[in-house]
Amino acid sequence: MKWTKEQQKVIDYRKGTLLVSAAAGSGKTAVLVQRILTWILEEEKNIDEFLIVTFTRAAASQMRTKLRRALEQLQEQYPDNQHIIRQLSLIHRASIMTIDSFCKQVVDDNFQILGIDPAMRILDDTEGVLLQEDVLSVILEKAYETQPEAMLLLHQYMKDVRSDDNIRQLLKQLRQQAESVPDSRAWLAAARKDAEACGAEAIESCPWMQLLIQGVKDIMEDVRQIPEKVLEEYRCLPAEYQPKAYDKYSIYFQEECQMIQAVMQAATYSELQQAFDKSGRIYKRFIWKNAGIPEEHYVTELWQKYSACKKEAAGYVQATLAEIEEQQSGVAPVLLTILSLTEQFMDAYLSEKQKKNCMDFGDVEHYALQVLTRREDKKLVSSEVAKQMQGMFTEILIDEYQDSNDLQEAILTSIARQTDGEYANLFMVGDMKQSIYKFRMARPQLFQKKYQEFSGNLEETGISKKIELMQNFRSRKEVLESVNFLFYQLMTVSMGGVDYNQQTALVPGREFAEQSPLPDYRTEIYVLDALSEQLEEADEEISEETQTEIKEEISEEQGDEPDMDVMEQEARFAAAKIRRLCDAKQPLPIWDDGIGAYRACTYRDIVILLRTVKGWSETFRQILMEEGIPAYAESSKGYFDSVEVKNLLCALAVIDNARDDIALAGTLRSPLAGITSEELAYLRAAYREGNLWEIIQRYVNEWEQPEQSQLYHKLKQFLECLEGWKEYKTYSSIRELIWRILDETGYYQYVAAMPRGRHRQENILKLMEKASLYEATSYHGLFDFLRYIERMKVSEQDFGEAVVMGENDNLVRIMTIHKSKGLEFPVVLLCGCGKQFNQKDAENPVLIDADGYLGINYKHVEEHYYEKTVKRNCLAKHMKEENIAEELRILYVAMTRSKEKLIMIGSVDARTAKSNKEYHLLRKRYQDKAADLQEASTQVYKPLGKQRVAKCNSYLAWLIVTLLQIQNQGTETDSLRYQIVERSEMDWQTFESWNRLQERSDLWEARMQESGNAEFYEAIRTRFAWQYAHPMAVAAKGKLSVSEIKKMSQQEELEAVDTLPELTEKKKMPKHNTVSAGAEYGTLMHLAMEKLSFQKGESLQQVEQGIQELVQQKVLTPEQGKRISASRIYHMMHSGLGQRMVQAQQRNSLYREQQFVIGLPMHQVYKTGNETDLELVQGVIDAYFEEDGELVLLDYKTDTVSEEQGAEELVKRYHAQLEYYKQTLEQLTGKCVKETYIYSFYLNQVIPMPFDLTERKKPL
Questions:
Q1: Does residue 124 sit in helix, strand or coil?
Q2: Strands laid side by side in the 976-982 sheet
Q3: Please, which pLDDT band fits residue 285 given cuts at 50, 70 and 90?
Q4: Band of residue 933 on the pLDDT scale cut at 50, 70, 90
Q5: Would you tell me which of 699, 737, 935, 1141 could form a disulfide with 973, CB atoms 3.0–4.6 Å apart?
Q6: CA dihedral over 135, 137, 138, 140, signed as positive or negative
């Protein structure tokens, strides 16, 4: 094999420790194997003289296999070479293993030093979960008894006074963090010292303070050149502008330059504060016109960016050190309680494990460190055992080094030889850009530190060197150049850990056979936008208040997570792309190394990568299957949701406790008993008293004619089986019990006949396997097994559904990006790019950081409010930036899995569609059909800056900001192209899908009729044509608001009209009444009308005074008080209707803001069918009053309408809503509603509502 120059250097270097930064697809595994072979052949070393540490067992097995095959090939070349023959005999005992396996070996060989039982076993995961919960129960129970006040305070800080689940989760996270460092107790002690820090000097020296200082510097780093650029622009202005511009404002810009310099030089918090204090002025909107500058020299956008960054940075240093000290002392008692409980938990958990003679993998690593090191002058140095091992290994090779942590680093360096204080025989290979295991306590900073410190010049003095492998031998240049296009702009040292430039970018190293004509292998980026058109239509065709309602509804429906519609639209779009890739007429050519030629793309060549499979994978699988595309989604979730597992767990719960009504009902309704819902309902109706178990017993014992009841026979048989199962459980294992249930009921064969039957059977076998593993632990019995399962559900752990896919099955694979690491696929579809990043860990009450320890907000217990602390703000910012950096590396991993074609798909969320200026600009460019641009592939784009990258909340947001940088506003380059797909285009694709389904249906029907089997055909047609007798009951929501019913009514009216009248120009509200959103203004006016007294509205001054009283009572904020129009309220109170309301209030018969929930027949709500089931309708009546034994109903409206037809518009718009209010009042009060009115604050008008809309009355 021909090696590149850099690869050969890696293979040959022998002078000391070597760090290899190996990019994706650079052949690092092949190079590592060749390096070992070179050691064996040229230096005549033995294979067992090397320690090869891999990240997973699968990687270790693969490495061993590759080495064995390479040695076998060498033996064929040199059959008489005894040294090679000897290596083949040693390969099976070579030290090729994970770090956990190595540590276990060290512990097993040195158990006498540790004083532990050599037979101590590894704790099973299932047992560990139960054991931790048991230990925590004891610890917390004792804490509640001995320190109740401290625990009450802790509950208040954890924002959960009813449960200690949050506390349990926190203690487990703290234990995990502490055990990821070499000295767990020292880390907890340091955290305690940090919490107790008192005094300015002590606080300034806290580690988190350095994070804060660096964070502020990072913010200013992105904009530090702006004041200098503006100043230089001023200097270059023509002479006539100098007096008004440069001479007047240059001092200010010079101050800004000096301030930035002071910030960058600041070493302490005080110095940072002083730097900002010297530049107190912040010109958010610098008025360039007033400065006398020509318009072509305006830099408004640039200066706004600078001002925003400066304001954000200054916000982190607003608090004085005295205020920080006060915050620290306020939260210290809570943090000390947490740390004390963590120490107790760790001690008690370790004690329990020792009692049970077991240890977990964390213990194994710490035991190994204890064997291999000793403490000398507060530092860890190699022990005698470690020194002996140093002579055993010629070299220690660490694969995936970027995923190591501090504890693993201490273990491996303890057995490395040293020369002049430097490690001499370490070989570390990895890629900082692919470090994606933060959740496993990985510390990519270890790799980053060495990468920055080690020299790339192999001829320099020193033995710590680095070599970079940038050539990619996996992917086409189109894939690599699109990766470079994005990461030139996104990844920097401070955001991702690597300065992504021409020295670190991917370089094409593989040459693909030429094709004519050349297919389009360019990366494709699709932005699915189903919302922008909808919002634009709302802006154009609907009133201001309704616009706001629609936009808020879209935002609420979308939320932070994509809804089902988003998943389905992406899945259908992906299906369309897959069909085109595998199209029989013109498929995408795929190079096949096996045959040495191109072949047509098939389903097995394609993978769909998702950031998370939760909620996504099953949707994608179902949609693809509907589209006729076979697909498989391996999920780590969903096992406990599978019906076959649910049924068996319910049966086991009933065997353990037959009085568990939920489990018993589930078992009876399952095929295990075969009781129908109607039969269960009959039992409950017949016996109103007692639980379900007692009802069954009474029914079986009291039934007089059992031979005439099918229900009786089913219950009798079930009870007999249950009695046998209960007796059997006393002397059998859980696995045997499950098998007996399956055998007696035939359930195992039953699920085989269900859809995905083989898959369901595998799920059952997996449950039996888990039961066996559980019983091999120190826990036994059915009760504890069920308790463990329940704990797994609560803690969101899952076994994942069983895998039944073959390696060569021709289907599309669906997996997470993490699962795909280390794999490669001809075609990659990266979907779900619009899914927002998960930042929930930065929102926890207590934040945990390896360097900054613990952060928490200060709660003023008596005043019942939280004060944000400087420390928690700092840790939250740091944690979010680390999460964003990890997401950036995850995106890099996803994009580099592709060999030939990369397709990225993301959906625009409501927030982006409404307010993302960068997306609006990109969309406008695309709609303008800007000229395509064929750029040179060597184009290097400038980094966007850490802060701009960090403010993005999804992969799609990164795509948007990077695509904007395409020069000349083009929509494509020679390596990628993007397309914004609007709703109409997505609807057309759905239409095409239905057409294909219809064609398949017609073809099947024609074949069935040709076969002559009319009876079979008719039976199938009848079954598929069957319709449920109560379709409205299925489609109904169950609960509706009156506003939703109003919109349904409006939609019906719109559909009934052929054309819409032209909209008249909107009348603008007076400036002092204008608000940012119509709905907000309406809410404020409604609140005022609810709280203000009608008896104190005799003058405008009284109304204004009433509004001020609401502000003083904190019902309204001062800003809200200013927005309310006192004059319009006064006008309403002095209308004829308003005076009647004054009189009603004097009689105590005025009712305002009355909430209600009533049940109405479905046919009345939906205006269709004859369904009599009730639909719940909820709403709020603005006001009504009683007059002469009858009721008068009033609804306030703030809609903007035309003066000419405004009253008519409001009557049309709200007649349905007012009709429901009228029915509700009459139903709830039993009194007749004699009059119904709308009061329009916009028109200052009372509008009567006719009971018959064909009768129009003139407004009052």
A1: coil
A2: 631-633, 812-816, 606-610, 825-830, 898-907, 523-529, 976-982
A3: very low
A4: very low
A5: 935
A6: positive
Tell which wins on pLDDT, 963 or 1041.
Answer: 963
For residue 1158, the cross-strand partners are: 1177
Contacts of 332 (CB under 8 A, 6+ apart): 195, 196
- Higher-scoring residue by pLDDT: 514, 304: 514
pLDDT in tens, 572-610: 999 999 999 998 788 999 999 989 999 999 999 999 999
Name every residue whose Cβ is closer than 8 Å to that of residue 752 and which is 6 or more positions away in sequence.
758, 760, 761
Q: Where are the beta strands (DSSP E) in 1087-1188?
A: 1150-1161, 1174-1187
Residue 1070 scores a pLDDT above 90: no
* Structure-token match 């080495």, residue found: 67
Find residue 608's DSSP bridge partners.
Answer: 814, 829
Determine the Cα–Cα distance for residues 1045 and 1040; give it in Å rounded to an integer.
7
Going by C-alpha positions, the residue among 651, 792, 644 that lies closest to residue 721 is: 651
pLDDT band at 968 (very low <50, low <70, confident <90, very high): low
How would you classify residue 221: left for phi > 0, otherwise alpha for psi between -120 and 50, otherwise beta? alpha
CA distance 1159 to 1165: 10
Q: Residue 301: which residues within 8 A CB-CB, separation 6 or more? A: none
Dihedral (CA of 1207, 1210, 1212, 1216) sign: negative
Helix-, strand-, coil-residue percentages of the chain, each rounded to 5: 55, 15, 30
What type of residue is 662? I
Give the pairing of strands 812-816 and 865-867.
Answer: unpaired
Asked if residues 50 and 399 have their Cβ atoms less than 8 Å apart, the reply is no
Q: What pLDDT is attached to residue 333?
A: 95
Q: Which residues contact 220 (CB under 8 A, 6 or more apart)?
A: 260, 263, 264, 309, 310, 313
- Amino acid letter, residue 1031: P
Q: How many residues does the chain have?
A: 1260
Cβ within 8 Å of residue 905, ≥6 positions away? 526, 528, 570, 573, 574, 577, 829, 830, 831, 832, 833
Comparing CA positions, the residue from 584, 575, 635 lying closest to residue 606 is 575
Contact (CB, 8 A) for 253 and 230: yes
The alpha carbons of the chain give a radius of gyration, in whole angstroms, of: 36
Residue 157's nearest CA partner among 1182, 1112, 860, 1073 is: 860
Q: How far apart are CA 728 and CA 997, in angstroms?
A: 52
Average pLDDT over residues 1003-1025: 73
The tens digit of pLDDT for each residue in 455-488 reads: 988 888 888 999 999 999 999 999 999 999 999 9
Residue 265: Cβ-neighbour burial (10 angstroms; 0-12, 13-18, 19+): exposed
What letter would DSSP give residue 593? T
| H or E element that contains 90 | helix 82-90
Between CA 279 and CA 257 the distance in angstroms is 10
Residue 619 neighbours by CB under 8 Å, 6+ apart:
564, 567, 568, 571
User: What CA–CA distance (Å, rounded) separates 894 from 905?
Assistant: 13
The beta strand positions in 78-204, using DSSP E, are 95-98, 121-122
| Cα–Cα nearest to 541, from 553, 533, 552, 530 | 533
pTM, 2 dp? 0.78
Q: Can you give the pLDDT at residue 1259?
A: 36
For residues 211 and 313, give the distance between their C-alpha atoms in angstroms, rounded to a whole number.
Answer: 13
Would you say residue 141 has pLDDT above 90? yes
Closest to 1256 in 3D by CA, of 1210, 1199, 1219: 1210
**DSSP 8-state assignment for residue 188:** H
Distance CA(955)–CA(888), nearest Å, equals 8
Exposure class string for 293-308: b at 16+ Cβ within 10 A, else e: beeebebeebbebbbe
